[in-house]
């Protein structure tokens, strides 16, 4: 029940996978069926339901895995989390490159801007690509990410959302880690945590 995203450049067919949480075979089938060339795997954060498919894909495709360095403390417990929740392959992916908010990441003719949004986890980020932003568990349609897990902070999360996301264009499409899409404008007007 987690949203994994495959984003591809239509012209070059280069693609990235955002938050490969599980079902790596199913994800790779889409990549192969569409003829995409996978450039890298990138994660908004390191929770078990967002990262458990990464190692299998990375090992098969030999592409780099990118995540914020402050997620190391979360990733360290991936094996225990998989055992506790009863899914995953027991593999812990190695991070090949730590995300740098000052750097842009390109694939094909598309560019990813990394926006730090700690609060749900210490190193949570949102990934802005064109007219869309991928927010992981930072923001949901009508809600916000939980902050009761290790490394979470409600105050920090609300500050991240208000200063980093609510300042963006209201028409920006928001792809959430769980549940339906929304827009920045909808959340400004209707999210009870932000009004």
Fill in the keyword field for this structure.
single chain; 195 residues; alpha/beta; Metallo-beta-lactamase, Chain A; six-stranded mixed sheet; five-stranded mixed sheet; 13 strands
Task: Explain what this protein looks like in three dimensions.
This protein has 195 residues and is α/β, with parallel strands linked by helices. The chain has one domain: Metallo-beta-lactamase, Chain A, CATH 3.60.15. The longest helix has 12 residues.
Can you give me a brief rundown of this structure?
With 195 residues, the chain is of the alpha/beta class.
Tally the helices.
7
Radius of gyration: 16 Å
How far apart the termini lie comes to 27 Å
What's the rounded overall pLDDT mean? 96
The figure for the number of domains is: 1
Find the structural class using helix and strand composition. Answer: alpha/beta
CATH topology: the name is Metallo-beta-lactamase, Chain A
How would the blueprint of this fold be written?
Layout: E1 5-8, E2 14-18, H1 24-34, E3 37-42, H2 48-51, H3 54-61, E4 65-67, H4 72-75, H5 78-85, E5 97-98, E6 104-107, E7 110-116, E8 125-129, E9 132-136, E10 139-140, E11 143-144, H6 154-165, E12 173-176, E13 182-183, H7 184-190
Parallel strand pairs: 2-3, 3-4, 4-5, 9-12
Antiparallel strand pairs: 1-2, 6-7, 7-8, 8-9, 10-11, 12-13
């Amino acid at each position: 029940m987690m949203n994994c995203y495959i984003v591809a450049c239509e012209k070059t067919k280069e693609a990235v996978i955002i938050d490969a949480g599980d079902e790596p075979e199913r994800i790779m089938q889409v990549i192969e069926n569409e003829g995409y060339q996978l450039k890298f795997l990138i994660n908004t954060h390191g929770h078990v339901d967002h990262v458990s498919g990464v190692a299998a894909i990375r090992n098969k495709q030999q592409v780099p895995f990118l995540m914020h360095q402050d997620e190391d403390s979360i990733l360290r417990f991936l094996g225990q989390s998989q055992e506790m929740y009863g899914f995953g392959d027991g593999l812990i992916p190695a991070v090949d490159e730590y995300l740098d908010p000052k750097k842009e990441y390109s694939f094909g003719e598309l560019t990813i801007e990394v926006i730090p949004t700690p609060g749900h986890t210490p190193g949570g980020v949102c990934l802005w690509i064109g007219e869309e932003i991928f927010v992981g568990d930072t923001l949901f349609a009508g809600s916000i990410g939980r902050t009761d897990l290790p490394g979470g902070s409600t105050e920090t999360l609300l500050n991240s959302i208000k200063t980093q996301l609510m300042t963006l264009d209201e028409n920006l499409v928001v792809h959430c880690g769980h549940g339906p899409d929304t827009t920045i404008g909808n959340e400004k007007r209707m999210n009870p945590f932000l009004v």
